[in-house]
Automatic annotation (TrEMBL):
The keyword Transmembrane applies. InterPro entries: EMC1, EMC1_C, Quinoprotein_ADH-like_sf. Belongs to the EMC1 family. Pfam families: EMC1_C (PF07774). One of its GO terms (cellular component) is EMC complex. One of its GO terms (biological process) is protein folding in endoplasmic reticulum. The lineage of its organism: Eukaryota, Viridiplantae, Streptophyta, Embryophyta, Tracheophyta. Signal peptide: none annotated. This is ER membrane protein complex subunit 1. Component of the ER membrane protein complex (EMC). Residues 311-525 form the ER membrane protein complex subunit 1 C-terminal domain. Keywords: Endoplasmic reticulum, Glycoprotein, Membrane, Signal, Transmembrane, Transmembrane helix.
Length: 526
């Protein structure tokens, strides 16, 4: 009996779900994942990376509009618990933080969801506002990740509120610092934490903050345009960088490094709103613990909008050059000179494995360069891999709602017009005034991500591969191999040919052994 149309459709759907890339299980390469996204309306959606289908969705009750007309707002989504040692009996969970109203001083809301089912496991309303959310690297015994939520009074509240989490945090509190960027007041401030809140000493999970430093930019000369910092989970393969003459340069790898770009007041508007003589852009590298300005550079005749990304020891930022009437991308690389002191190494007064401190004045060396770029930019990101060995690529969201992958080698400040043979062997590309746009480098190919707003890159288990997710009105997901798949076989690899080759080699070895034995026997009878 032939199947009906509905039965054929059901069979086809079953085949799609049971295909290798669409299974609801983990794979050894780390390609099959759930993309969990949060909308501004407070709806959480889990998408399968294999075919983009919706696994579950949940419009959180605590973020729905109330009968009094208050409109809650969702802020951010974070990893809450990844139970590596309890995988068989506990699912990973996520944290959603929002506000119970539209105002910035409205009380906060916390929701914890099961990553696999979307079930809301816990919901909690705060008696304080949410001004800043700081995910920490610390975890408690149940592998819940610790978070600090800073309110509008600059008090920090620890979550989860458990004795184990409190003990873990107290032990490391002296090493915890954070900073805030106040665009309205045109200031950046750095804080440390103290043991109890000023207004509520009974709340052991509330900590007051101490102002350590502040940088207030003069409003009549500079206005903050953008600030960026390194990702907390970024992996750096090596601190040393060997250059062409066999010399070694040591990267300045401080997780406290932040990049701040300011523009002159007249250049804060749209492109063309200021004359080149009135416009300027200032780029700062600041230590978030001490507030020390490590480097400052001024671009005269430049204005925003500014987009930037920070990775390892380098910063890349995009702006508009009014004098040249073209967009530019600039790169800054910062190196630690104190670790390159050969005399200290010979005398044994310096240890490369010694911990770095932000309170000592660093001896840094900075290299920078700028290049013309064809497109206006909406978002920027950098590829992340599991061990940090694979070459970096810059992911640029263009004004055409596409994503361009640009090799970091094109943004090497050491590029020169006539590189030496040693520099060519190192991989340095000859200097040009503009960055190349290669059509094959578009990650999105011919597709467009409507109203593109951001790009996220996360590592897979394979070192050669990174997973790229782009979001806007549309969503786009793909896998990217910046240095090609050097650690895995392609899908087109012929395993049958490999098996035939092995069998042929074994047969040839056996035949050769027989001939050798016969020849040896004949030689003995002579």
């Amino acid at each position: 009996m032939l199947a009906s149309v509905d039965e054929l459709a059901a069979i086809q759907a079953l085949r799609v779900r049971s295909s290798e890339k669409n299974k609801m299980t983990r794979d050894h390469n780390g390609f099959r994942k759930l993309l969990i996204v949060l909308t501004k309306a407070g709806k959480v959606i889990a998408l399968h990376t294999g075919d983009g289908r919706i696994i579950w969705s949940n419009l959180l009750p605590s973020l729905r509009a109330s009968k009094l007309g208050e409109m809650p707002s969702a802020l951010r989504i974070y990893q809450w618990q990844v139970p590596h040692h309890r995988v068989m009996r506990e699912n990973p969970t996520i944290l959603v933080v929002g506000r119970s109203g539209a105002s910035s001083v409205a009380p906060g809301v916390l929701c914890i969801l099961d990553s696999y089912s979307g079930e809301e496991l816990n919901s909690q309303s705060f008696d304080h506002s949410v001004a800043q959310i700081i995910p920490l690297t610390l975890k408690d015994s149940s592998e819940q990740r610790l978070h600090l939520i800073v309110d509008s009074n600059s008090n920090a509240h620890l979550y989860p509120r458990s004795p184990d989490a409190l003990n873990s945090f107290i032990n490391e509190m002296s090493n915890q610092y954070f900073y805030s960027v106040d665009i309205q007041k045109n200031a950046i401030r750095g804080y440390s934490l103290q043991k109890s809140c000023d207004f509520n000493s009974d709340d052991t999970y509330c900590f007051s903050t101490k102002l350590l430093w502040s940088i207030i930019f003069p409003s009549d000369a500079e206005r903050i345009s953008v600030s960026e910092a390194r990702k907390m989970n970024e992996v750096v393969h090596t601190q040393a960088k060997i250059i062409a003459d066999q010399d070694v340069m040591y990267k300045y790898l401080s997780k406290n490094l932040i990049f701040v770009a300011t523009v002159s007041p007249k250049a804060a508007g749209e492109i063309g709103s200021a004359a080149p003589e009135e416009a300027s852009l200032m780029a700062y590298l600041i230590d978030a613990v001490s507030g020390r300005i490590l480097h400052r550079v001024t671009h005269h005749g430049a204005q925003g909008p500014v987009h930037a990304v920070v990775s390892e020891n380098w910063v890349v930022y995009h702006y508009f050059n009014l004098r040249a009437h073209r967009f530019e991308i600039a790169v800054i690389e910062i190196y630690d000179q104190s670790r390159a002191d050969v005399l200290k190494l010979i005398l044994g007064k310096h240890n490369l494995s010694a911990p770095m401190t932000s309170y000592s004045r660093p001896e840094v060396m900075v290299k920078s360069q700028s290049y013309f770029f064809t497109h206006s930019v909406k978002a920027m990101a950098v590829t992340q891999t599991a061990k940090g060995i694979t070459s970096k690529q810059l992911l640029i969201g263009t004004i055409g709602d596409q994503v361009l992958a640009l090799d970091k080698r094109f943004l090497d400040p050491r590029r020169s017009l006539n590189p030496t043979q040693q520099e060519k062997e190192e991989g340095i590309i000859p200097l040009t005034d503009s960055l190349p746009i290669i059509p094959q480098s578009y990650v999105t190919h011919s597709l467009q991500v409507e109203a593109l707003r951001g790009i996220v890159s996360i590592p897979a288990k394979l070192e050669s591969t990174t997973l790229v997710f782009t979001y806007g009105v549309d969503l786009f997901y793909t896998r990217l191999a910046p240095s090609r798949t050097y650690d895995s076989l392609t899908d087109e690899f012929s395993y049958a040919l490999l098996l035939i080759t092995i069998v042929a080699l074994v047969a040839a070895l056996f035949v050769t052994w027989i001939w050798s034995e016969k020849k040896e026997l004949r030689d003995k009878w002579r």
